Amino acid sequence: MAGKRNFGFDIQGGGRQIDLDHADTSLASELKDAVNAWSACINCGSCAATCPSGQNGGLNFRKLHYQIRLELPTLQELSTLSSCLLCGKCQLVCPRGIPTRYLSIQIMQKTKHYVRENIPSV
Amino acid sequence: MKQYWKDYQKEIADDNYFYVRSCIRQNFFPGAENLFIDILKNKLGKTVFEDAEHTTCTGIGYHTDVVPLETTMTVIARQFALMKEKGYRNMIASCVTSFGLYSEVLDMWKHQPELKEKIAGYLMEATGRTFEEPENMVHASDILYKYRNEIASIAKYKLINKTTGEPLKVVDHIGCHYAKTFPERGVGGSEFPQVLTGLITAWGGQTVDYPERRHCCGFGFRNYLVQPNRGYSISQSKIKLESMKPYEPDLIIANCPGCSMFLDRWQYTLEETEGAVYGTCGNKIPVFTHEELAGLVLGYDPWEIGLQTHQVPVEALLDKIGVEYNPDLKYTDRQGNLIGEPELINQHVC
Amino acid sequence: MLERIFHPFDPFVLLFTAGMSFVGTFFLYKVIRWIEGLSASDKELLTNNIFSKKTWKALGEVVRESLLHKKIFGVNVRLGYMHMSLAFGWFMLILIGNIESVYYTSRLFKPIYVSVFWRFFEPGPTFPQGAYTPGFAFWMDLFLLFVLSGLAFAIYKRFHSIRLGMKRTTRQRPADRIALTALWLIFPIRLLAESATCGANGSGSFLTGSLGSLFASFINLDPLVLPLWWTYSFVLMAFFFTLPFTRYFHIPSEPVLIFLRKYGIRVSKESPGYTDLSLRACSSCGVCIDPCQLADALPGRKIQSSYFVKTIRHNEPSDVQWDCMQCGRCEKACPVGLELMPIRQNSRADLSFGTKSNLIGMNGRNGQSHRILYFAGCMTHLTPSIIRSMTKIFDQSGSSWQFYDSDGRACCGRPLKLAGQTDGANRIKEQLQKDFLASGAELLVTSCPICYRIFNEDYDLPGIRVLHHTQYILQLIEWNRIQVDQSKLNAAYHEPCELGRGSGVTHEPRELLSKLYLKDVTPDIEGLCCGGSLGGPGLTLATRRAVARGAMNDLSAGKPDVLITACPLCKKSFSPVSDIPVMDFSESVAQCLIEQSVQPELRKSTKTHRKLPVDAG
Amino acid sequence: MLENENHRIAVIGAGPAGISAAVTAAELGIDVDWYDKADQIGGKLNDYYQLFPDRTSAMNVLQEFDNLTGTARIHKHFGKAINHIEKNNGRLVLMSDHETVGSADSVIVATGFDFFDARNKEEFGYGMYNQVITSPELEQKLKTNPDSLKFDGEAPANIAFVHCVGSRDQQIGINYCSRLCCVTGIKQAIEMRELFPSCRVVNFYIDLRAFGSGYEELYREAQEKHQVQFIRGRVSEASENQQHRIVLKAEDTLMGRPLKITVDWVVLLIGMVPSCTQVQVADHQCTDQETGFLKAANAFTGHRLDGQPGIFMAGACGGPMSIPEAAASGKAAATEALQYLINR
Known about the structure:
The complex is a heterotetramer.
Chain A: E1 18-19, H1 26-34, H2 46-50, H3 52-56, H4 61-70, H5 75-79, H6 89-93, H7 100-110, H8 112-118
Chain B: E1 17-20, H1 25-28, H2 31-43, E2 48-49, H3 59-63, H4 69-85, E3 90-93, H5 96-111, H6 113-127, E4 136-139, H7 140-146, H8 148-153, E5 169-173, H9 176-179, H10 195-202, E6 206-207, H11 221-225, H12 230-244, E7 251-254, H13 257-274, E8 287-289, H14 290-298, H15 315-321
Chain D: E1 8-12, H1 16-27, E2 31-36, E3 50-51, E4 56-57, H2 58-68, E5 74-78, E6 84-88, E7 91-96, E8 99-104, E9 106-109, E10 113-115, E11 132-134, H3 135-144, E12 158-165, H4 181-195, E13 200-205, H5 215-224, E14 229-232, E15 237-240, E16 246-252, E17 257-263, E18 265-270, E19 272-274, E20 280-281, E21 311-313, H6 323-343
Parallel strand pairs in D: 1-2, 1-9, 2-5, 6-20, 9-21, 11-18, 12-13, 12-18, 13-14
Antiparallel strand pairs in D: 3-4, 6-7, 7-8, 10-19, 15-16, 16-17
Helix pairs in contact in D: 1-2, 1-6, 3-4, 4-5
């Protein structure tokens, strides 16, 4: 019957493409209400640069919260936020004065159930 | 299509052609090249010379790093030498990759004359021949584009749906080596090439501009030749077919042997692996080359010009246009004995 | 038999009795719930201490605070008087009323209403006879007047609170307002009722008597007596019925809090009962609003503790949960002494993202053990001059030291705790504790008060003394291990909240300042927050700058040439808003350090107290 | 001021630069012959709706300019395009298609710029797809007919702005940055967000250059107040889908991943190119080889054209320039012309 034969190579669909028409940006709009200054982010990377967890934990804070503006990150990507120490250094260096520490807390809070159910031992 | 693609007009010779064949086109669609010569000679009254000694342009080898550039250039110089010896000035390349390669070589010689001298030296040393650059070097589809109206005037059929009277929706796919490498060497440039759409509109069809129109067909030498990459090749075709599906095209035509083959063959594989079918009501979309389309319109017998070798069965389309054909003779040779039926035909006719 | 027990009786007393018994049972029920809600360890504290000296001390505090409201006098004398008069005055009315009624009926056990309405039942002339010998009526009138004077202040405060030392007062909830009006009506109506009775019978003392005869002179009081006592009983009932659901439940619950606190019980997640008790004990008097620096920076937003306690107590959703800077100024000012900071921290629900910080490695340790371990703190890496100065000071003092978080990847865990992430903070604590103890250091010096506080409060570091670098530098100077020449400038000291209020280190920095600068022009006010606090993540940059500017011009009252602080975060918060240099202690010490040959570190041997050279190791 | 009063300056071009040059020269007491190919003053200012950074209305600015030009010393000769200047014995002769139109002692060329023809960037489909327009066209629609910005009669759901179209692009031989398309894109993004509050506006940029005073604040306002989304990555391809919406392909270089979005409008922020009616001066080539804009002899010291005593340039004919800059350079050129006339 047609379908499900394997010729030794797999077929990729959209793959790594971000499809902005259908991407889920619900988390982004929630965060925008909570932290309005966040939209002024220009992705300069100061936060990620000074982040202690960034240097050896798996967390790239800039890329993560920027990604949220485009699409809902995967569980694996979101769980990198678990190594955030909330130390607040990123907030001190942000040239746009965005309360990044609060942003991190809000991301954790708003994805708490989503992450806890799926990653038991975060 | 608005007109400013007219800024890209190329000069196409009108007779005395020196035809160089493609090394893979006749493997995939055996009738195509003979059909092209036949149309030129018998339908358009042109003189077409095909030199028995001419060889492959080594394009496939060159693009997969098997053949070094200088060897390719010497082989191409030999082709030009043959042409000069036979007294012809206008060359037609049957394959788009050859056309791209000839253009590239001529372009390199233009910018590095010393390279041309070196190749001339190699040729003399190897074959004792000297060569001259052709006055006019075009692709086979350019010729059909040039005489598309003459063909239309003597055409037996039109690309019109016999029952509904609607022009058939035809998707054109241009080989990348035709217009993308050297836009000014393609009719209409690289963004909105007209060489195939010209044929479609001239012969009564309706062109389709779908979002992934310029996307690669999946041929890409390194894609399909190397087994691990074959997944990329079929994925490109899938993206294209998915993008054209909403337009419900009746036919796809392409001017490069690779594109026509893969857009045709991969439809079978996609159905087998993913159950995806892109034509209307379960049919797949037939894929023709420009010569086959011309032959069809001019009334050649479909089995005569080798349409039965296509992966996607063509009967549904032939019925749509109203082409007479004898279904029983599909797999018989001239003497009428069976030449073997392909193992799997899943054909839905609605 | 019933009449005997309920003699004397009049139907109107039923209202008061119903109210009183309702409050009594409700309060009893709550006390049981509070005690049940204590953690096992807290229950033990209770049982061990209930019969100890602490109970007497607690009783003393109840009198000092619940009745006399001594702490409020600290805020403002008039405000103190108002509270004292209402509380102590009412208490005395009840006490003397009881004595009077017992004296007359010579029955110790009688219905509770008797003493309250005694004047109605026994309108008779004052006893003992004699125009001016003060009888019970006199004392009752005196304390009634005392309460009424407090009431006058309360009403006056409603319109000119500034006169009572409060720029802002709490905007009360509707239920509180009802209870308030009931409370305000009780005493005037009692005055009228008693005066009417006394007027009708020619009794009463200087207040009720004279007022009664005044009324009698122009109206016939007899028909008025009973209705007035009915209203009096009704108003009392109204107050008692609303009391448990309003701020006035503070009246019965504060003493319970005082006892439990005296026994050593503290707010913690494990003892929800004690937290609930603390919430009930809050009288939402509003004294905590003025000290809050956000009152000016975020006018109108109900962040202050008196509002915050309400939102948790009535578990209303609130978005200001993240706005408080946790600087502790309200906690310091709270007359009831509630632990406002832990309450707020515990309210920040654990986001259970469960920070798994795998990043703390012993990066500073190079095998040898050194006497001093220097933990700069993550924020200090954004003020490199502090690190450079501390290095200079350590080297100049010849101490055997080692820089634990030299590559800036360590964190003490307190920022997580401030955001309610207790398990994340604990995970870091375990790791750091292991590292510190393994380092063999005896002294842990840190430049950041936030780290200093958690090291002291939560970390368990047997054999290691934790010092903030101001304390350590002061010791170096006192031991003459380093010399500084005093600069000619005047300086003001900004006391970081976590160091001063948070950890009680107030003396050493001022001492060090006097050694470094000509004149210490620090204004004499409660420590101000710099606005940069990690405690208030929700604050926008603009708010933080506003707080910093407010604190800055308070601190520059004494026209300092330099502002000195002891925390990298405070330094970074003040620099953008200050036009005078903002320096950390370490920087100014390093600046005026007298270079000289490095003396070997002398170890004060514990046994012989003679100073022995330490093997530098 | 001048010994003989019959000195005359010719100003070619009536845009902001030309206006301020003519007005300044007149106020300095010299008679001005003022030429422009159009019939009224203002040049491109007539087609603008609101000007960055504070979005003052273009009509008001034009009105203010117009009020200045009422002096008697200015003689308008509008409607004819000067495209050639000849020198004969110290006088400069102005020619329009080889027909002499006038002469002057000194000439200020203020012929302005043209917008880049977006058709040359075929891959964006300008001229092929109706939903692909350029920033001046959007400005015109905002000014005269905002309703035409609806799509199928409703508010557009998605709008994309593409920065750097016809600037910083080796493919079309225009390597300079046109400086002002970024801030235009920010302004127009805000205007679209205000016109259609429910629509998502995305600006695709390479480097966002908001250098002028007030530009960065406008950028931040666009981000924070109007929620305009800025994505770093240049659109490489635009194709039309069945509903005639445009499917854009780009890479989000900050995510390092390819990106696709379907939009109702694509606004191409086209750059500035030298004006096609560039003035030729006698035998001398006084334009910059690389860019084609007029070239000053010494850009640091003044506006005199290279190798042409007495001929000065003002405004965007010398390179991409904002309106305030053009007006300022007009005044400078006029004073330089006066100095030239005095010292001659």
